[in-house]
TrEMBL record:
Belongs to the WD repeat ESC family. InterPro entries: PcG_WD-repeat (IPR051243), WD40/YVTN_repeat-like_dom_sf (IPR015943), WD40_repeat_dom_sf (IPR036322), WD40_rpt (IPR001680). Keywords: Repeat, Transcription, Transcription regulation, WD repeat. Pfam families: WD40. WD repeats lie at residues 95-137, 144-177. This is Embryonic ectoderm development protein. The keyword RNA-binding does not apply. PANTHER family: POLYCOMB PROTEIN (PTHR10253). Residues 345-389 are annotated as: Disordered. The keyword Repeat applies.
């Protein structure tokens, strides 16, 4: 019988994929690449309703509904297709103000009427959907001494008080939002300086940032990792810092004196000292191979109360990677119990997802079977060296098994990126652009090249992945 822990730890599997019509006919003559670039679920539906998501290509918005019935062969139904020049069908409000393309939007989790937009004009604008602000919906502009190049990603903190921004200039900024106006205004508030700014975390274009509690997840092209890190001294528990202590570009501390262009400035640790030798700390990296020079490839973290935090990302080779953050702490507790247990009582219960590898039996030079051993100095060797009394019990697991577990779940080496806890595969030519999670965490949708969407599901009956074509009438722009 499956336990609650087994169910909670289950990771998505590929259920179905679909390819929308090639919309290059609607593009400019010099643009012949069809792609979905973004996908988002409606976050305000009741959890007992079929979740709805919208995928955005260069010329279309495709709105889809997913069936809650896990037995459905085709769980995805295309509800509507809208072309972007059909303004009468989609325009409810039109906000103007940015001086160039808008590359990302984020809704405040604290107040759903507040939206942030990130633009090629290097600014972040904060908008209000409240009817009080219908004449001047832009409440605040974050710009000035933050970014010098196009922005690609923006993300709210759970409190709605802090905002991350990142883009082509390799800079990641943390902004503190002022108290936003509750009455009509004539001029937006301007914030010129972020409270934290760094170009030292990544060495390429930063195309995705997100909060994980008070920690930060981010990725950049060329790096082949998603990084989890924290700003030293930053905590959302206390009052927000005053704007007048935000550091200016003149008050900067090089993070690497051999490379003066990679700089960090922080209001939370203004100067480095022996007591606080760093302004930020890298916690761990997640291994995302085969991304190459591609940028605008964005991960998504499912992080809601009562469920395991799960990170999803698709690379440039059609591989969808998942990491369950809860597994990291469970693994650490299990290995600690394994080292310290009483041998007379047997091995502590092993989590169902922590499976020993099945491997061929090794033989010695004479062809006789021999036991698998852990190589001295390898990450797994510590498991059999730290506590001699547990050595024989640990050796019940092969060297390959221990090395595999270490590569996926061990946090002892922050410089060794963690391999995915689960990998699902689609076409090797598929480039993932954006991942999205349904509010209840059952569904994960990946969109990307060739106007393709991948639908993955947790907690469903076992059924083979399928590919289907949407109804012909759905392929015609309404």
């Amino acid at each position: 019988m499956s336990t609650y822990d087994d169910i909670a730890s289950e990771l998505p599997r590929l259920r179905v994929s679909f390819g929308f019509e090639n919309d290059t006919a609607f593009l400019d003559s010099d643009d012949n690449v069809a792609e979905f670039f973004d996908v988002k679920f409606c976050p305000y539906q009741p959890l007992d309703c079929d979740p709805i998501f919208a995928a955005v290509s260069k010329k279309h918005v495709v709105i889809c509904k997913l069936s809650q019935s896990s037995g459905d062969a085709n769980p995805c139904e295309i509800v509507s297709v809208i072309r972007d020049d059909d303004l009468n069908a989609i325009q409810i409000k039109c906000f103007t103000g940015h001086g160039s393309d808008v590359n990302d939007l984020a809704t405040s989790p604290f107040d759903p009427s507040i939206i942030a937009s990130a633009s090629d004009d290097t600014s972040v604008r904060i908008w209000s959907l409240d009817s009080k602000h219908k004449e001047r919906p832009c409440l605040c502009i974050l710009a000035g001494e933050g970014h010098s190049w196009n922005l690609l990603s923006v993300a709210f903190h759970d409190t709605g008080r802090y905002l991350l921004s990142a883009g082509h200039d390799q800079i990641i900024n943390l902004w503190t939002l002022p108290d936003l106006p509750t009455e009509p205004i004539t001029t937006p508030i301007r914030v010129h300086y972020p409270h934290f700014s760094t170009s030292a975390v990544h060495s390429g274009i930063v195309d995705c940032v997100a909060f994980y509690g008070d920690q930060i997840l981010s990725r950049a092209c060329h790096d082949n990792v998603i990084s989890l890190w924290r700003i030293e001294g930053f905590s959302s528990d206390g009052p927000p810092p005053a704007q007048n202590i935000a550091p200016t570009p003149q008050n900067i501390v090089p993070t690497n004196y051999d490379e003066a262009g990679r700089l960090t400035r922080s209001a939370f640790v203004p100067t480095i000292s022996p007591q606080c030798p760093a302004q930020y700390t890298r916690v761990l990296d997640f291994h995302t191979p085969n991304c190459g020079p591609q940028f605008f490839m964005r991960f998504k973290l499912h992080f809601v109360p009562g469920q395991h935090p799960v990170l999803a990302f698709c690379n440039a080779g059609g591989n969808i990677f998942f990491w369950d953050f809860k597994r990291l702490t469970v693994y650490s507790d299990f290995m600690k119990a394994l080292r310290n247990h009483d041998p007379s009582k047997g091995i502590p219960p092993r989590p169902s997802w922590l499976r020993p590898l099945q491997h061929r039996q090794r033989t010695d030079a004479a062809g006789k079977p021999r036991l698998s051993t852990v190589e001295k100095g390898s990450p797994a060797s510590a498991l059999v060296e730290e506590t001699p009394k547990a050595t024989e019990d640990i050796k019940e697991f092969s060297a390959e098994t221990l090395e595999s577990w270490t590569a996926k779940y061990s946090l002892e080496d922050a410089h060794e990126p963690l391999r995915a806890h689960k990998t699902e595969s689609s076409s090797s030519n598929f480039v993932g652009r954006q991942a999205a999670w349904s509010p209840g965490g059952e569904w994960c949708v990946i969109v990307g090249s060739s106007n393709t969407a991948l639908i993955l599901q947790r907690w469903a009956k076992k059924a083979p992945a399928k590919t289907f074509e949407p109804p012909k009438e759905a392929l015609v722009a309404k």
